[in-house]
Design a protein that fits this description.
Order of helices and strands: HEHEEHHHEEEEHH
Number of strands: 7
Distance between the termini: 47 Å
Strand content: 15-25%
Largest sheet: 5 strands, antiparallel
Radius of gyration: 25 Å
Shape: globular
Strand order of the largest sheet: 1-4-5-6-7
Helix content: 25-40%
Low-confidence stretches: 1-57, 246-265
Number of domains: 2
Number of helices: 7
Mean pLDDT: 75
Structural class: alpha+beta
């Protein structure tokens, strides 16, 4: 019978083919117990890591830090730098014209934004208009919903980092023109639950913060075709419900009315 040994085991130096008939070291039993204890601690550490560190919901730092992390450029006046190719590897300059800004003012007029809920709905429609306007110029109008292997490095395609960054840029344009009466633009948020495998992979969203209640809302269009109104849902319910992260549940993922990411793939 052949025994295999870990490289750090005391028996490793005797060779891989230590047979049953060889001389027995009286300390072998103690050494084996120590090895088993060491292995068990490693298994426990991995389980704890999967159950706790594998679940997260956090801000991606300040708004400018997110842009720095992906070497993306923040808006400059009415100019944005649209991200694509996954992870903002491609950035294409686009400037909203005076006519564009006038259209934004119409879409986000006081009549359309009387309450916070009204403003969120108007923001969905306005972001969809902005995305269509930009996509037609920078070449991302044929972006496929979600991610796929063929999209990485393709300047016509966008992953969730690209989408979250672009939506944040568009929101900052609205904020610059004082078209957000009930909300402010928050830091990009990240949520993940690696226990789910690919369907719980790290995901990004832009954030709106309601001024009075301080409620955060995730703004996410990753699973939608380009130019469709993004979902705006309570951040704690976006993608993976916070209760599932805090209490270790693994119920179905939720992105408001969006399909589950594993179904989208």
């Amino acid at each position: 019978m052949t025994r295999l040994f870990a490289r750090d085991s005391p028996d490793y130096s005797r060779g891989k083919n230590h047979t049953a008939g060889a001389a027995i070291n009286p300390n072998d039993h103690l050494n084996r117990e120590r090895q088993l204890a060491w292995l068990w601690r490693g298994v426990v550490a991995l389980l704890l890591s999967a159950g706790v560190a594998g679940c997260a919901y956090h801000s991606d730092g300040s708004i400018d830090l997110h842009y720095l992390r992906y070497k993306a450029r923040m808006p400059e006046a009415d100019k944005v730098f649209a991200c694509s190719a996954y992870g903002c590897r491609t950035q294409t300059e686009f400037k909203f014209t005076a006519a564009d800004i006038a259209q934004l003012q119409t879409l986000m007029s006081a009549a359309h934004t009387a309450t916070p809920a009204d403003e969120r709905q108007a923001t969905r429609d306005t972001l969809a208009w902005m995305e269509r306007r930009v996509d037609a110029v920078v070449g991302t109008s044929a972006d496929r919903p979600g991610d796929d292997f063929g999209g990485s490095g393709d300047p016509t395609q966008m992953d969730c980092v690209d989408i979250a960054t672009n939506l944040t840029s568009y929101l900052l344009i609205l904020e610059r023109h004082k078209l957000l009466r009930h909300h402010s633009v928050g830091s990009v948020f990240v949520k993940e639950d690696y226990r789910r495998g690919m369907s719980g992979w790290t995901h990004y969203a832009a954030i709106l913060v309601e001024t009075k209640s301080k409620q955060r809302y995730a703004v996410d269009g990753w699973l939608l075709a380009s130019g469709k109104p993004p979902e705006i849902v309570e951040a704690e319910k976006w993608y993976v419900d916070d209760a599932d992260i805090l209490f270790g549940n693994k119920s179905a993922l939720s992105t408001g009315s969006l399909p589950r990411p594993d179904q989208a793939r």
